[in-house]
Amino acid sequence: MSNAQAVSTAVAKLYDTYPFPPDPLSDQPPPGYNWRWHWQAAYQFCTGQKPSRSDIRILDAGCGSGVGTEYLLHLNPEAEVVGIDLSAGTLAVAQERCQRSGVAHRVTFQQLSLFDVDQLPGEFNLINCVGVLHHTIDPVRGIQALAQKVAPGGLLHIFVYGELGRWEIKLMQEAIALLQGERQGDYQDGVQVGRAVFAALPESNPLVQREKTRWSLENHRDECFADMYVHPQEIDYNMETLFDLIEASGLDFLGFSNPQVWSLERLLAKAPDLMARAQPLSDRQRYRLIELLDPGMISHYEFFLAKPPLPFIDWSEDSTLLAAIPERHPCMDGWPSATVFNYNYEVVKLSEPEQAFLQGCGENPEAGVTVAMLCQRSGLLLAEVRSLLKQQLLLLSPQA
């Protein structure tokens, strides 16, 4: 057995033992939304505009127990979805999850490695690969395999671990492995050892403190604890190695899906002289500076890549924005109300003109009602329309 096969077998055994994520099954659609898994929302975030079609193909690459797959199905009712994973046991949970919530007829599950994704027919408009690449023995090979399956104009959504925000996890992983000795690979034993270590360490121990303040809410379940502390394969990244991975994909980097974290103003706004010194830095250098200054925040990187050609629009020209066709954003909770949650579950308080504008957006999107028409009806200023757009409360389509 090759080293790669041995790692794949070990990873599959972990998830056969502890199917992950361990979210409970339900006969109802999953609650809420993750906008990164909503094709229209993700596409506008990346390009500035609503996609021209929603009858797309989606691949959930490393779907695990189907938590993300189920969201992809419910949030994209016109899409055909394929889910792949190494673990047969976990795939069985994913199948049951989607069966119970009524969307199993639109998904195909297959036991398959990322490295063998070329065995799947056709290409995909959206590939979701969350928490998977860093658990392969060769992430470069993995991301290159996925890149080959992205359709022209399609998106690849990636989530990988960051080394600076997971320092304590790496230490505990090594400590558990040392204490397990020859029993490494017995994941139930690993969980027992890890929990015993945390119970024995002094309350003031930094590993204990970090676990309590950052991870304990999820790690009360053995599935989460095992995934974090006894995983047989993990490669963590920093900004330099991350962009090496991205460049190896051959795709275009569109940006992080949590841009607020990657704003230097968040950290240095009180020091204009330092902000001025940072001005000449490249984006990559600025990202590195941010993770150096706030390492505890950066436990992972989540970002979008794309295969050209991909159209972009920034709506900076007033005439272009006025002629756009607006719709209410699909990832907005609490409407109709003066207080709603936006795509990131942030509270947004709407003025009366904003409410009137958004109400008009939903009346008949096929009628060709433009931003200009709704501004005239509602009294909303163009600057306020841009504010709604910035908060991801609108989808915009250019005039045909």
UniProtKB/TrEMBL annotation:
Gene3D superfamilies: Vaccinia Virus protein VP39. Transmembrane segments: none annotated. GO terms for biological process: methylation. SUPFAM superfamilies: S-adenosyl-L-methionine-dependent methyltransferases. It holds the Pfam family Methyltransf_25. CDD domains: AdoMet_MTases. GO terms for molecular function: methyltransferase activity. Residues 58-154 form the Methyltransferase domain. Keywords: Methyltransferase, Transferase. This is Methyltransferase domain-containing protein.
